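Human: Here is a favour to ask of a fellow structure person. Comparing notes only helps if you start from a blank page. Give me a protein, with the fold worked out from its sequence. Please set it down just below, with no commentary around it:

Assistant:
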Amino acid sequence: MAKLKQVLSPEVAARLADLAHDMRQILYQGDQGEAGIPVWGTKFSKIEAECLAVSDEIGRLMIEQAVAGQGQRVPRDSLTLAEETASLTGSTPAVIETPVGEVHWQQPKARLAQARRDFFPSGSESGD
């Protein structure tokens, strides 16, 4: 089944081509054939499975790094709720299942002193 292809900038496409070359060199370095090339006769399904495992892990790691970075940079306006500005009080572990595997990060936690309740700040675009 074909996937819808995301349009990537030329810079991202070029970097991905370089990364694919490097990953292929590592993945097939121990094979009997030429470096970076699977041994002749390796089934397509095996090559496909190995390459998709690499691509899924790269995607999972990128998602994990992106949400971890967001969690460390909470905008001040996202801390306002019900006319009160909350104070960041730490974080709590968060996990979500994605199509490429579980993603773990520390979700920022804030406290509304007057309302006496905790909440997890997010921007207006959160959850899209």
